[in-house]
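User: Okay, second chain of the day. Same drill as before: sequence in, structure tokens out.
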Amino acid sequence: MKENANLLEGSILGKMAKLALPIMLTSFIQMAYNLVDMIWIGKLGSAAVASVGAAGIFLWIADSCYSVAKMGGQIKVAHAIGEGDTEKARCFAASAFRLGAVIGGAFVLLVLLGHQLMVGLFQLTDPKTHSDAVAYLLITGTAGVLFSMVNQIFTGIYTGIGDSKSPFWVTGAGLVLNLVLDPLLIFGLGPIPSMGVAGAALATAGSQGIVTLLFLLMIRRQKGFFKGLPLFQKLGGGYLKQTWEMGLPIGIQNVFMSGLSLIIASIVARWGADAIAVQKVGGQVESLSWMISGGFSMAVNAFIGQNYGAKKLNRVKGAYQTATVLMLVWGMLCTLALALLSAPLFQIFIREEEVLPMGVSYLQILGISQLFMCIEASSTGAFNGLGQTKLPSVVSITFNLARIPLALLLSSTSLGLDGIWWAISISSICKGVILTTAYFIYIRKQHLFAAAAD
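Assistant: Same drill. Structure tokens below.
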């Protein structure tokens, strides 16, 4: 393997771009797994989309849970690399995998024991839609979750050491496989039977499994950071505890976000399966914005993490400024796209005329908040890179929690279903403004910019 990427010297913009581009492309690829599913499943009708949407909420919860291990490991690895202590970084990487194994195993057990109850929360009245949701959850929530957990932690560790290209190529190979398997297993071909929604789940889980295999083959051939990783050795120095404590606020934030989304989805379900399908498809379209900004947030996290560990505060300051400008531009582009191209974007997935107006309304309302969501991502990445994971988590949890009473209030007016979308958009605007303001207050109180000037 190549030596750890040198993020401590050279052009800030150049280094940030070189690190961020593969991360954003990797995030796009991960999003594309779901988009490909939606495109093909959409051909089965809105009921099939609703079944995947219901099960997909729980997969988001799983992803949120093992983000404790992924992000805790990524931040601590980046700090150790910045300090010049590679062995310490390896111990943090090993602790991330151990922590992820515990969390992933617990979620799989929950799915095996409670899948009927979990899907039942959505009160899907059509028996076929309910059974499809159960099948999708069982497949993707067991093997799929375990493979995804390993892949996400690998991605986080690679990012922490400054190598964002390797996860991109490996994840890209998984997408290519998913592109082939999706139509093959959903609709069948020759001796392969048509499996519908279950086929989509098998395609996604199988692709994630291949990505895990490719990661393992890659690190076996490479020499460097992952060689001799102490996965099964006794770790001293409280590595597991530090990884847990660093990642826990992020994990709680993500679990709250996904759990609240489950509650929001149950409110949306009052408008029927079409509304659930709109939320699922609309969220996938909107994810083009938040997955890219989230990927850039990871790059900011790693860049600032290494430079903060090395006490290069001028580069910390420059990285945040660069990231914020780029995210402002990206947010404005996303707002324009969702405002002007809402109908054609939604019709990529669902073409049923009676559903289209609901989808257009979703995208246009959520489009208003894209700019604020993007600057929230850059501020979150900066806070996390500094090791201050609690404050962005508190801000996020507070305003995500506010979505529930606001959604109930606004949806009870003439806005109806649109009131729920407005609640989501308003809370995103608040998070972006408050978290960015909080970052500038924090650095002033800590005198980071003054220290950088010295």
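The two ends are 37 Å apart (CA to CA).

User: Thanks, on to the next one.
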